[in-house]
Structures are given as structure tokens and as C-alpha cells.
Amino acid sequence: MTELASILLAVHIASGLAALASALVAASVKALGLPHRWHVLAGRLFVAGMFGIFLTAVPLSLIGGILFLLLVAILSFYLAIAGWREAVRHRSRGAWIDRVAPIAMLLAGVVMAGWGGLGLVAGNVGGIVLLVFGAIGLLVSVEDLRLIGRPIEGRARIAHHMSRMMGATIAVITAFVVVNFEPGWIVWLGPTALLTPVIFLWANRIRAGRIA
Known about the structure:
globular; mainly alpha; 7 helices; single chain
């Protein structure tokens, strides 16, 4: 590994740890009885950490010739950006990023799903990972494109914000699990399979007013 790659990897890992720690704080603010400003601060740190992950993933994927990691980094960064925009959209609607980001994710989702599908046809079971992540990217980007010009408010907006941020958090957890355990499609999809139902239940409770 070159010195540049070593530095990028160190920054990548540090960004991931910062994102994971801030996500835990943001999700625990109410349970810990902390002021809402701690949630806001932790959320900003989370997005900054995700930005660091993305910025370092691009050159690392090029140096290592691993397009797979780049596409996954795009998905995780998009979810963080979409969650952040939902938190501030009521103050700034219709910004260029609200159009450009979901279109970029839509294109990346097509590549991911297509590549994964071809991998499965060729007998590569690992293709299921790209297929699932690509499908997630397509679903969220299409939904976000449909919401342009039709902003959601109230509890629905909070639920939308939470689901995107938690999706990005799942990506960070997935990366941590893959780095520390035997890689494989079950390991890659494990956090998604386990935590996605939690996100749906949490979002529904927010919309129903059962969570403040």
C-alpha cells in the first residue's frame, strides 16, 4: 500500500468512526434527556463524517480498482445528504442539490442493480449485494425526485429525515462489520436485513405521534 493510500485509509476509518459515534448520539438524545441542539450538532458531525468517507472512498476505489466500494459509498453518502436536506428543507426549498443528488443516485442505482444482476446471471452470488443496494438507491432516489415541488411537513418530514439518516447509519455499520468479520453477501446484507424493519416501525410511530 502506498503512503497516499495509507493516509486516505486512515482518514476514511476516522471519518467512519466519527459518523458512527455521532449517529449513536443523535439517535439517543431524547432517551438521554439531552437538549435538541445536541441532536442537531451530532447530525451535522454525522454528515461531515459521511462526507469524509465519500471523499476518501473515491480515490481509494480508484487506487485499488474496486468500483464496488465506490458505488456503496455513493449510496451511503446520498442517504446522509437526503436526510440532512430533509432537516433543513423547510428553510431552503428547491436548491440545486435537491435535484442533482437524486438524479446522480438514480444513475448510480441503475449501475449497481445492473451490475449485480449480471453478476447473478454469471453465477456470482455476491451480485445480490449490489442488486439489493442498487434497488434501495433506486427506490429512495425516485421517491425524492417525486417529492421535488411537493415538500412534506410535520411528522411526515421528521419520519422521512430519520429514515434517510438511519439508512446511512446502516451503511456505516455494514462497513464496520465487513472490515472486522469474514466478508460475504450475508455479512454485507445482515445489518440492512436486521435494521430496516426497525426504521419502518420507528417512522410509523413518528407519523402516528407515538414518538415526539
